[in-house]
Amino acid sequence: MSTIWLCVLVVGAATIAIKASGPVLAAGRELPHGAARVVDLLAPVLLAALVATQALATDEQLVLDERAAGLLAAMVAILLRAPLLVVVVVAAATAAGLRAI
Amino acid sequence: MGICTLGGDEGQAEAPSSLNRVRPGTYRDGFRAILPLMPAIVAFGASFGVLARAAGVDALAAVVMSATTFAGSAQFAVVSVLGAGGTAVAAIAAAVLLNGRYVPMSVAASGAFTGGPVRRVLEAQLLVDESWALSRREEGGFDRRVLIGAGGLLYVGWVGGGVAGVLAGDTLTDPSTLGLDAAFPALFLALLAPLVRDRLALTAAVLGAAIALVLTPVTPAGLPVIAATAACLVGLTRPPRKHARRVPVRPQEARS
């Protein structure tokens, strides 16, 4: 089985189980305090790590290239409250533009 | 799914007020609440299809993933980690941990679901960031019909957008010429922005990014992102809240 299909099947099954965990198992109960406070931070922490590595890492090296410029442009677009699609297009266009020069 | 950020605030500002009532919500209330976000959701779904194809992902695999995982940030995480040379284990771990946020959300909404286990499992699949936030009642608890109405329409838009994106992605040539490699970090940043409104979340995010960057030269690709989750432990420094709200505060709730 190819890598991508393995990922699709495992992530799909895990996500289905995660979403069903509350309605099937918890039925109105709540998570313990400590666990909830740690889990709350999973999404911001992982997204930040993905921002950093996707913009600044190539294989196992830190690289400063057009992607970083694209990220800066995206940051400006986000601060200007641009919709997500505009943010992404601005970043891609910035990187593509710099490469074309 | 985190698409709340992309609709701007105008769509969300309307929706919660329409739910500010005592009578139980209907499926139609759910449709109505999610409708202003639909163009953004379809576009976000399509961008997954395009970027998945650009990263060399099989077209059918991309569509099956949208239909089964139905969680944008996790799907993008898999595609980007694999695209950056990470292993399947690294990609799966990043995506599953990213979806870990659905544990508290699912537990919080659990009281709204009815029926046998099969029905609960199926209906729970329509739980995504937006349907969860929209189905929250002002007086506490969650409205099952609003969640299913909003989540159902969102599902159709997400998967439909994904199919369109995959077809469009097949016509693309060299991804880096188009700057598509710069699209991933921008997308993750846009999804991150609304989540770091409080100091603790911002601290954890900065720490997570720092851990990932420091580990990049010394560990295999994909691993730095997983190791970054250690930054979540700063959550233990937060004092326990008096009210039983153990779920991330959504931007629109913070304002209301």
How would you briefly describe this protein structure?
Chain A is mainly alpha-helical and 101 residues long. Chain A has helices at 3-26, 33-39, 42-56, 66-79, 84-100, and strands spanning 57-58, 61-62. Chain A has two domains: 1-30; 31-100, no CATH class.
Please describe what this structure looks like.
The complex is a heterodimer of chains A (101) and B (256). Chain A has 2 domains: 1-30; 31-100, no CATH class. Helices cover 76% and strands 4% of the residues of chain A. Chain A contains 5 helices and 2 strands; from the N terminus they run αααββαα. In chain A, a hairpin with a 2-residue loop joins strand 1 (57-58) and strand 2 (61-62). In chain A, helix 4 packs antiparallel against helix 5. The mean pLDDT of chain A is 91. Chain B has a domain at 3-180. Helices cover 61% and strands 0% of the residues of chain B. In chain B, helix 3 (38-54) packs parallel to helix 5 (72-83). Chain B is globular and about 55 Å long. Chain B starts with 9 loop residues before the first helix and ends with a helix. The model of chain B is unreliable at 4-21 and 242-256 (pLDDT under 50). Classes of the chains: A mainly alpha (101), B mainly alpha (256). The interface between A and B is large, with 83 and 115 residues.
